Structure formats: C-alpha cells, structure tokens
Amino acid sequence: MTVRRCWVGNDAGRHSLRAYKFVVSTTNSGVEKLIYDDMKTLIMIIAGIILFTLCNAQSPFSKKSKPTSEEISFINNEKIKYSIVLLACDTCVPITNLGERVIVKVTNRQKKILNQIDRKLWISLLSNTDTDWASNLLLYSIFNRNAHILSIYNNRGSWVKTLKKDDLDYWEKILDR
C-alpha cells in the first residue's frame, strides 16, 4: 500500500486542504486500484459510520422494558399532585369550552417511566388500593380524557364508590388497542 500526499488549494491559496490518496497495489497483475480519492471522501465515510453507530445505539428507554417497583413508586395515592382544569378555545369564535382535563405534576424522568408501563402493569396499578386513584388520574392526563365527572367526584373515596369500576372497564378497553 502506498500513500501519496498532495496539497490542494484555491486560487488565492488561502484555504488549503491536505488530501491523501491511498493506493493498493496488487502483486499479480500490477494494477493499481484507487480506494479513496481524497480526504473529503474519507471524512464522509468516517462520519457516516459514526452516525450509523449512534443511530443504532440502544438507549435505556428504546425498548419498552418493565419499570421496577422503585421507579414507579411515585404512582401513589398519597403523593400524587394534580389539578382538574377547564380548557377553552379562546381563539375560536365564539369561545368554545373544550372540557375539563387532569393535569398531573410529573418530572421528565417520570414521563419516560410512564411511557414504559404496559397494559398489564396499568391494570395492576388500577386494581391496587395504594395506586388506583393516582394511576387513574395519570391515565386521564396521558390520554387527554375529559375529566368533567372527576371534577364532581374529586377524591379517592367518592371515586371508588361511584366510578372506579366504570373507569377500570374503560381503561381495559383503551389499553387493549
């Protein structure tokens, strides 16, 4: 293999580029094959390989792996911070009521964990007396479901007595999709 170095520059000679030619000689036929014509091509190939490697790298949240019980400990009836707000379209004429929505205070890390939860775990959380209310509020928020009825039954006690069974049936159907 022989390496030839040459200098390439523009007319003013200000910006010069060092280019290398890599030439492989075959011993049998004596024919030289040009592999890379200049440094730009080599740089483009290296950049392509790096980009390909980075794009195929596995991120910790690329697969929908099941979160640990420690990671989902923020889903707790006692700890959940939420509000039920009335949304309206103020750019519509006339101003239109869009309904009530649940807003749950969660961090970006917690949002990533919520995206990892599968149907089976959601149903389990909805069935657990320590996490049922919190998981229901989170699902209302994630799926942007109208929460008008939750503004009436706005605590766990009244929700369990009146709506828990209906909400559980609804979430089972929605999560099956």
Description:
By secondary structure, this protein is an alpha+beta fold. Helices cover 41% and strands 23% of the residues. The protein is extended.
In short:
The protein has helices spanning 39-56, 108-116, 119-127, 132-142, 148-152, 156-162, 164-176, and strands at residues 2-9, 16-25, 32-36, 82-89, 96-104.
List keywords for this structure.
177 residues; alpha+beta; 2 domains; 3-stranded antiparallel beta sheet; two-stranded antiparallel sheet; 7 helices; 5 strands; disordered N terminus
Summing up helix and strand content along with how strands pair, one would put the structural category as alpha+beta
The neighbouring-strand order within the major sheet is: 1-2-3
Q: Gap between N and C termini, in Å?
A: 60 Å
**How confident overall, as mean pLDDT?**
79
The best one-word shape is extended
What's the multimeric state? single chain
**Largest sheet: number of strands, sense, barrel closure:** 3 strands, antiparallel
Tally of discrete structural domains: 2
Q: Could you give the count of β-strands?
A: 5
